[in-house]
């Protein structure tokens, strides 16, 4: 997703929300991608209507939920460690119930209940509406589980409780699941087939967020460019849709345009784009609307044609370069970021060099880089030996990271001297005299606070930079300021 968070570092508990009638306390922690954080807001909303307020104090929780990630082995280990901690807490609070949500719940199913005695409840990503019923079973002294994946569920009818929010930017999910079947990836197995959410419910949510004072939204999906609404149903069944459904179908470029027009003062971002599904009409819509940010997260995973093929990424290196060239032609100042995997099975030194040379061509603004982690059940997990030695993977990963750092600095330096519109999100971590926000290209900008406030669009002159941050000073309100 836009910023794939390092799961090992990012277990985040959610802040309080209150409904005075509720008597029970929910503590919910999320790991992994932005979709999980967004899903936790849906879960909190469902439980809010069923007697639970959220708390950020583990010690007072009646119910602890952990929304889990399976993308790499390390992510799963992090959750296992957290469960040990919850176990210790449960010794003092025997009535506390513990539930596991998300991708690990879906992947491990009843094994979770067998392996982790502390777990009372296991719920997969499409079954969150069933949590109140499942909790009833838990109250009756049973373990409870629902890991059924759905063909329809999009949670479009649930208004998420905005937890942990800065009140400025929010996530809006537009698709669930993924049909791409990249051979290394567990997501199609844990999140099921791809389905899109009704554009009307997306627009309602966006308008509601605007009315609540939010200034920026990120449209979320595993593969947003393949968004397709034709009245409901799986993406793969579109061929069998009626002529009317086909004629009135909304693609991602259409949705982006609808959202940009509905709230012209609101910044729009989206994530993630698989290069094989990104089309020129999306880039053209981006360039047409002032409020759609000039930033694309465009994971490539490898620069080697042979490895791309083995990964079932359905584009070549050449086609990727073409896409990059088109983006730069249509949106010259577009920020572009990557995900890379080092040490996919059979990767040779030459394949790795292809990755480095691809990076040199694109010079990404930033990236998220990982050592290959074999996932049980995936095609690569079943058919390919994890044959790149750990030390080789590590060294290749370090080379990729070091090169990315060079490129990040090259990119941030290009902003020096420019005046850029920044949406203020929070106080700078390093100085309470500075604001922190992002420019259109998604790079963090810090500058002295003056009289500006959180949620303002401010034009900032960039005067200094590191490889990750731009430093500047405000020169007035931005064009998007109401
Ligand atoms: N389409 C998704 C991709 C999810 S996974 C999205 O919206 O972000 C995020 C990233 O994790 C992938 O792009 C890939 O670089 C990495 N990843 C996925 N499976 C992996 C594995 N088995 N080992 C190492 N990295 C992996
Ligand atoms: Fe995974 Fe590939 Fe989909 S990385 S989420 S299978 S686009």
TrEMBL record:
Residues 413-476 form the TRAM domain. The keyword Metal-binding applies. Its EC number is 2.8.4.3. Keywords: 4Fe-4S, Cytoplasm, Iron, Iron-sulfur, Metal-binding, S-adenosyl-L-methionine, Transferase, tRNA processing. One of its GO terms (cellular component) is cytosol. It catalyses: N(6)-dimethylallyladenosine(37) in tRNA + (sulfur carrier)-SH + AH2 + 2 S-adenosyl-L-methionine = 2-methylsulfanyl-N(6)-dimethylallyladenosine(37) in tRNA + (sulfur carrier)-H + 5'-deoxyadenosine + L-methionine + A + S-adenosyl-L-homocysteine + 2 H(+). Binds 2 [4Fe-4S] clusters. One cluster is coordinated with 3 cysteines and an exchangeable S-adenosyl-L-methionine. The keyword Transferase applies. [4Fe-4S] cluster 2 binds at residues 178, 182, 185. It is found in: Cytoplasm. Residues 24-140 form the MTTase N-terminal domain. Signal peptide: none annotated. [4Fe-4S] cluster 1 binds at residues 33, 69, 103. Its main location: cytoplasm. It is an enzyme of class 2 (transferase). Belongs to the methylthiotransferase family. MiaB subfamily. Catalyzes the methylthiolation of N6-(dimethylallyl)adenosine (i(6)A), leading to the formation of 2-methylthio-N6-(dimethylallyl)adenosine (ms(2)i(6)A) at position 37 in tRNAs that read codons beginning with uridine. Monomer. This is tRNA-2-methylthio-N(6)-dimethylallyladenosine synthase. It comes from Psychroflexus salarius.
């Amino acid at each position: 997703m836009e910023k794939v968070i390092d799961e090992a570092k990012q277990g985040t508990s959610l802040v309080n929300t209150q409904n005075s009638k509720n008597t029970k306390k929910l503590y919910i922690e999320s790991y992994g991608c932005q979709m999980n954080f967004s899903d936790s807001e849906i879960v909190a909303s469902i439980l809010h209507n069923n007697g639970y307020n959220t708390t950020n104090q583990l010690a007072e929780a009646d119910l602890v939920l952990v929304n889990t990630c399976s993308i790499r082995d390390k992510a799963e280990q992090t959750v296992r460690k957290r469960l040990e901690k919850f176990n210790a807490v449960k010794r003092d609070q025997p009535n506390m119930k513990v539930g596991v949500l998300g991708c690990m719940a879906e992947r491990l199913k009843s094994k979770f209940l067998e392996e982790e005695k502390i777990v009372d409840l296991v719920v997969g990503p499409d079954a969150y509406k069933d949590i109140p019923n499942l909790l009833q079973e838990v109250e009756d002294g049973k373990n409870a589980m629902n890991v059924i994946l759905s063909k329809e569920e999009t949670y479009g009818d649930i208004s998420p409780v905005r937890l942990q929010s800065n009140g400025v930017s929010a996530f809006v999910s537009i698709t669930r699941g993924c049909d791409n079947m990249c051979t290394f990836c567990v997501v199609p197995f844990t999140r099921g087939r791809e389905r899109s959410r009704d554009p009307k419910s997306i627009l309602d949510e966006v308008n509601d967020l605007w009315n609540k004072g939010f200034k920026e939204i990120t449209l979320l999906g595993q593969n947003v460019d393949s968004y397709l609404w034709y009245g409901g149903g799986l993406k793969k069944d579109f061929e069998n849709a009626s002529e009317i459904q086909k004629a009135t179908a909304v693609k991602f470029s259409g949705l982006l345009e609808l959202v940009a027009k509905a709230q012209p003062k609101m910044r729009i971002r989206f994530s993630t784009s698989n290069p094989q599904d990104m089309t020129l009409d999306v880039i053209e819509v981006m360039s047409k609307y002032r409020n759609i940010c000039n930033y694309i997260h465009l994971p490539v995973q490898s620069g080697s044609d042979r490895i791309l093929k083995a990964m079932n990424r359905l584009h070549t290196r050449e086609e990727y370069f073409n896409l990059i060239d088109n983006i730069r032609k249509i949106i010259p100042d577009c920020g572009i970021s990557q995900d890379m995997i080092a040490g996919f099975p059979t990767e040779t030194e030459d394949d790795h060099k292809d990755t480095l040379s691809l990076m040199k061509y694109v010079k990404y603004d930033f990236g998220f880089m990982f050592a290959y982690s074999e996932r049980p059940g995936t095609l690569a997990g079943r058919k390919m030996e994890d044959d790149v030695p750990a030390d080789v993977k590590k060294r290749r990963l370090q080379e990729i990271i070091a090169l990315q750092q060079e490129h990040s600095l090259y990119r941030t330096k290009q902003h020096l001297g420019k005046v850029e519109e920044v949406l203020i999100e929070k106080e700078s971590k390093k100085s309470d005299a500075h604001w922190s926000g992002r420019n259109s290209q998604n790079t963090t900008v810090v500058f002295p606070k003056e009289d500006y406030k959180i949620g303002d669009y401010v034009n900032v002159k960039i005067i200094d930079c590191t490889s990750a941050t731009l430093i500047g000073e405000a020169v007035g309100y931005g064009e998007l300021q109401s």
